[in-house]
C-alpha cells in the first residue's frame, strides 16, 4: 500500500514536468521495491497510474475540454481556431495511439531476449532520458504561432512525438512541448495543447492495453487516488515552473546517473 502511495505521488508531480513520469515510476519499482516483472507489465502499471493525473487534468482544463466537446457537435459553425485545435487533437491522437501500441508490442517482444532485464530497463530509460534532455535544450525558445495557426503537419508531428513517449524514459510532455516549440508554437499554447493531447491518449491507452488485464485492486485504487490528489494539488504551480525553467540539464544528468547505475549495481 505504501508503495502505491509513493508511486502515485511521483506520478502526480512528475506528470506536469518535462521528465518521464513513466520512466521514474519504473525505476522506483525496480530499484526500491525490486520489482522483477516484465517491462511490458511495468509499463502497464505505470499507465494505470496515469488515470489519476488524467482526472486531475480534466478538472484543471475543464473549461477548455467543455468548449471543445461542444464545438465537436457543431464543428462547421465553430471558429477557425477551435476547428484547427480539434483537427489537431484528432490527428495526433490517432497517430500516437497506433504508433504507441506498435512500439510497446515491439518492446515487450524484444525485452524477452535479455538475460538481465533490470540492466536493460536502466539502459533503455537512461538513453531515452538523454534524448529528452537534448530536445529540451534545443527547444528552449519562444514561438509566435497560436491555436489558429495549427495545421495537419503539426498534428502528424505531434502524433509521432507522443507515440514515441510510450517508451519509458521519453517524457510525453517533454517531447510534445519540445516539438511544438520547435514548430514555433508559443509556450502557452504548447503547454495547453500538450496536456489536452494527454487526455484521450491516456484514456484510450488504458482501454486498449489494460482493459482485459485490469486488476483494480485496493492497492491500485490507492495509487490512482494518490496520483489524482497530488496531481490536482501540484498542477498549477508546476506548470508555472515548467514555463520558466529549462529541465534539459537535469534530465541529462539523471539519464547519465541511470546508465552509470548499470555498472555499479551488482
Model description:
- The chain is mostly helical and 266 residues long.
- The protein has one domain (2-264).
- Helix content is 77%, strand content 0%.
- The protein contains eleven helices and no strands.
- It has helices at residues 2-14, 21-31, 39-60, 62-73, 80-111, 117-138, 152-164, 172-182, 187-210, 218-244, 248-264.
- The radius of gyration is 18 Å and the shape is globular.
- It starts with a helix and ends with a helix.
- The mean pLDDT is 81.
Percentage of residues in helical conformation:
over 70%
Summarize the biggest pleated sheet: none
Radius of gyration: 18 Å
Structural class, judged by helices and strands? mainly alpha
List keywords for this structure.
mainly alpha, 0% strand, single chain, 266 residues
Amino acid at each position: 500500500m505504501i508503495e502505491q502511495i509513493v508511486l502515485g505521488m511521483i506520478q502526480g508531480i512528475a506528470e506536469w514536468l518535462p521528465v518521464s513520469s513513466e520512466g521514474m515510476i519504473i525505476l522506483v519499482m525496480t530499484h526500491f521495491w525490486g520489482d522483477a516483472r516484465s517491462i511490458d507489465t511495468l509499463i502497464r502499471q505505470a499507465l494505470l497510474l496515469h488515470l489519476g493525473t488524467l482526472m486531475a487534468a480534466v478538472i484543471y482544463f475543464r473549461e477548455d475540454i467543455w468548449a471543445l466537446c461542444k464545438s465537436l457537435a457543431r464543428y462547421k459553425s465553430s471558429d477557425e481556431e477551435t476547428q484547427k485545435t480539434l483537427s489537431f487533437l484528432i490527428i495526433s491522437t490517432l497517430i500516437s495511439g497506433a504508433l504507441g501500441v506498435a512500439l510497446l508490442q515491439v518492446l515487450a517482444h524484444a525485452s524477452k531476449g535479455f538475460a538481465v532485464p533490470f540492466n536493460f530497463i536502466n539502459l533503455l530509460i537512461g538513453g531515452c532520458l538523454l534524448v529528452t534532455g537534448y530536445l529540451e535544450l534545443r527547444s528552449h525558445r519562444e514561438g509566435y504561432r497560436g491555436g489558429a495557426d495549427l495545421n495537419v503537419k503539426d498534428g502528424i508531428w505531434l502524433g509521432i512525438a507522443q507515440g514515441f513517449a510510450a517508451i519509458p524514459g521519453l517524457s510525453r510532455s517533454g517531447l510534445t512541448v519540445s516539438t511544438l516549440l520547435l514548430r514555433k508554437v508559443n509556450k502557452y499554447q504548447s503547454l495547453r495543447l500538450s496536456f489536452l493531447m494527454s487526455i484521450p491518449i491516456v484514456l484510450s491507452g488504458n482501454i486498449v492495453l489494460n482493459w482485459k488485464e485490469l486488476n483494480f485492486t485496493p492497492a491500485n485504487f490507492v495509487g490512482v487516488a494518490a496520483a489524482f490528489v497530488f496531481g490536482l494539488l501540484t498542477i498549477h504551480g508546476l506548470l508555472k515552473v515548467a514555463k520558466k525553467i529549462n529541465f534539459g540539464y537535469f534530465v541529462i544528468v539523471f539519464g547519465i546517473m541511470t546508465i552509470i547505475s548499470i555498472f555499479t549495481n551488482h
